[in-house]
């Protein structure tokens, strides 16, 4: 009799676990908003037509209104945050790294496949992490485990314009903004957090204290720029 009941009990136990997981997800909130950037003030004399000359024809100025690759993240460890399971990937293709900016949770393994038919090299001398995967083509996939939070600039020793950034973050609660500057961080446990916005060309934002309720959406915008930087 006991053996006949066992499958039924296992089914009920599995159903209970599923309901419990669904309930846990319901007790989580969302942080969303927009990120914008503004460059430093440009003196009027900088618009005197000199950029039209042949000498400065390649001196392209940064268009701060259309920057991409903004990342918004909780800048602290979050209780109950599970370690990363799946690796992330940066692909070497068309003599570039794709994506240019890769935000990951600390402890994540990153794979570096080469999809070109020429040799590439993957290396970093960043303070956060330094490594050198050597030269390889499509016969190898390099991998690196990023076990310390921070910014890691990665290059190819052969091709000078190949550069990407691995942004190693304290938790999995982060998001890249879309082309319109909108971001959404989902399934955040209720609590109060320090949240930051980042973009490689602009000083990072000061941390914003954001309180997340057990459900619903908490709105937080970020405006990055140079107005609060020292003038010297």
Commentary on this structure:
The protein is mainly β and 232 residues long. It has two domains: 29-39 and 61-76 and 181-232, Immunoglobulin-like; 82-170, Cupredoxins -  blue copper proteins (Immunoglobulin-like). 11% of the residues lie in helices and 40% in strands. The strands form six sheets. Strands 1, 14, 17 and 18 form a four-stranded mixed β-sheet that branches. Strands 13-2-15-16 form a four-stranded antiparallel β-sheet, with no helix packed on it. It has a three-stranded mixed β-sheet with strand order 3-7-10, with no helix packed on it. The radius of gyration is 23 Å and the shape is flat. The protein starts with a helix and ends in a 7-residue tail after the last strand. Residues 1-7 and 11-25 have low confidence and may be disordered.
Short recap of the structure:
It is built from 1 helix and 18 strands. By secondary structure, it is mostly beta strands. It folds into 2 domains: 29-39 and 61-76 and 181-232, Sandwich (Immunoglobulin-like); 82-170, Cupredoxins -  blue copper proteins (Immunoglobulin-like).
Main sheet specs = 4 strands, mixed
Give the termini separation: 83 Å
* Highest CATH level, the class of the largest domain: Mainly Beta
Q: Which CATH architecture of the largest domain?
A: Sandwich
Helical stretch tally: 1
CATH fold node name of the largest domain: Immunoglobulin-like
Mean pLDDT: 86
Structural class: mainly beta
Rg over CA atoms: 23 Å
User: What is the chain-wise order of helices and strands?
Assistant: HEEEEEEEEEEEEEEEEEE
| Spans of at least 5 consecutive residues with low confidence | 1-7, 11-25
- The helical percent reads 10-25%
Let me know the CATH homologous superfamily of the largest domain.
Cupredoxins -  blue copper proteins
């Amino acid at each position: 009799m006991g053996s006949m009941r066992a499958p039924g009990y296992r089914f009920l136990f599995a159903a209970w676990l599923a309901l419990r997981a669904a309930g846990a997800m319901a007790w989580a909130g969302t942080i969303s908003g927009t990120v914008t950037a503004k460059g430093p003030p440009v003196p009027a004399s900088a618009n005197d037509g000199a950029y039209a000359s042949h000498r400065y024809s390649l001196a392209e100025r940064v268009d701060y209104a259309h920057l991409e690759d903004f990342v918004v993240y909780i800048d602290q460890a979050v209780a109950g945050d599970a370690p990363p399971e799946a690796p992330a990937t940066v692909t070497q293709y068309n003599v570039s790294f794709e994506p240019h900016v890769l935000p990951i949770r600390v402890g994540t393994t990153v794979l570096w496949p080469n999809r070109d038919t020429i040799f590439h090299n993957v290396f970093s001398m960043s303070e956060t992490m330094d490594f050198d995967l050597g030269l390889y083509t499509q016969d190898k996939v390099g991998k690196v485990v990023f076990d310390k939070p921070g910014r890691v600039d990665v290059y190819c020793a052969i091709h000078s314009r190949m550069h990407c950034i691995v942004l190693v973050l304290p938790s999995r609660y982060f998001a890249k903004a879309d082309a319109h500057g909108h971001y959404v961080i989902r399934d955040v446990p209720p609590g109060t957090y320090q949240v930051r916005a980042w973009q490689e060309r602009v000083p990072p934002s000061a941390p914003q204290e954001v309180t997340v309720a057990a459900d619903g959406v908490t709105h937080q915008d970020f405006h990055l720029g140079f107005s609060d930087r020292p003038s010297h």
